[in-house]
């Protein structure tokens, strides 16, 4: 039986095209009408957009319903702020008393009594974490944005919005656009500008700073036109009402300052900016648990491989009662200075800092004679990298000065047009010599450089690895990560783990942690470590308040197979789920015992 051939006449095709065009316009108009509904438009109901392959990967790992809950939780902040008290200086009771007074006196203070009758400031009840204080917030709240007419609007960047959801104000650098004729003292609705996908797969806001928001669409049904091209994109992304502290012109003229005093927020959490500095540190609960998992003891030598900004470093120092030595390393000069500053604020003297790439943490055998400069507080001491602080400071300082002098001479030679030097490099070096040291060299501190450390140099090592940070919240955007990039994060962390394993002495402890929900950076890295280093074994953690890890494996369409944990191993790690009752960030902790390496 022959197949029938259907020939479509041009007139029919024209009519079909017209019908489909009308349907598209009707559908767009329907979406617009839904957007115009104040209850659905002026609210906070973001949807986290993932790369389709990444979403499929996470669905396989967690299950579709569970991952949907995780994804929604990531768009919202935790319902409380977690504060670690510096017990070297004060007590949790004294901090609670001071915070209660501060919140009572603040104009936009939280209610100090929750709906269930309990105080909004409380001491953590988890054994061993009594020095941690919780300040409970509230939300999400339904906000009236003006029933009679649409409010004036201020559009902020995504990163600004994420900070605002955690309790910050709207500062000038975060403002991207606003309605015309906004004056100082106006009531405005604050909304978020989200990245949108482009034709070639790139993501961008598609807006220049200073854009005027028209506020309303217009046009006839048969000739659908939107005056404000960003009108629909803002639907469901309103984070509060506030009062402008500057006019529209002022917001885009001055470099800093508060642009909007946000008095009515979707989520109400206190800001602890410049509050009780040195006495408290705002830190996520799983990060504090990671320091406890390391179980540092007085007098030990401990390495924090990726220490900045210093939260876990100082937490470890407090657990040691500031007795022992903690080497806090980071590859960024400015971040090392941040660790130094925080250590000084908290009055901790056992922390030594150095600039060091975690991928080069192990000192090569032919470099054992080289010197390593470590910085401890305001005192700079130079030491050989295979010993503790010694008395050869003058000799090492002399080497450092000689090296510095040779570098300067090399720069001058380049600036004068040495061999194999481009004219661009010549101009760059001339500007550098003329203008003096750059920003990273002129912040009033010094970050000592390190060539690394010999194997078996430390009793305990914490590797809080740089990661995709897909567990941090609130998070409003996740579109940049791909399956390949998630795998690459894991490969990078394996290389750092290879370094960490060599630095822990036999009988010591290694703790690996991340702030991501990505199994490639969590369970897969643990599997790699246990398979490659037979002398490593998972150790119990205390306190254990997180959930189990993932068991099994994942097969990808391209044939790549990712191995996770085996039964029994899942109960030895801690995995913090953003959608769980603990209401924390997404986080992962694995603790290893280091056995005989032979």
From TrEMBL:
Name the segments for region: Disordered: 384-455
List the Pfam families hit by this protein, alphabetically. Methyltr_RsmB-F, PUA
Q: Which residues form the active site?
A: 515
CDD domains on file = PUA_NSun6-like
A Gene Ontology biological process in which this protein takes part is:
methylation
* Domain of life of the source: Eukaryota
- Compositionally biased spans, kind Basic residues: 428-437
The alphabetical list of record keywords is:
Methyltransferase, RNA-binding, S-adenosyl-L-methionine, Transferase
SUPFAM superfamilies associated with the record = PUA domain-like, S-adenosyl-L-methionine-dependent methyltransferases
Q: In what ranges is there compositional bias, type Polar residues?
A: 384-398, 409-423
Molecular function via GO: methyltransferase activity; RNA binding
SAM-dependent MTase RsmB/NOP-type domain boundaries: 213-595
Q: Where does S-adenosyl-L-methionine bind?
A: 306-312, 330, 357, 464
| InterPro entries per UniProt | MeTrfase_RsmB-F_NOP2_cat, MeTrfase_RsmB-F_NOP2_dom, PUA, PUA-like_sf, PUA_sf, RCMT, RsmB/NOL1/NOP2-like_CS, SAM-dependent_MTases_sf
In the record, the note on similarity to other proteins reads: Belongs to the class I-like SAM-binding methyltransferase superfamily. RsmB/NOP family.
Protein name, per record: SAM-dependent MTase RsmB/NOP-type domain-containing protein
Q: Upper lineage ranks? A: Eukaryota, Viridiplantae, Streptophyta, Embryophyta, Tracheophyta
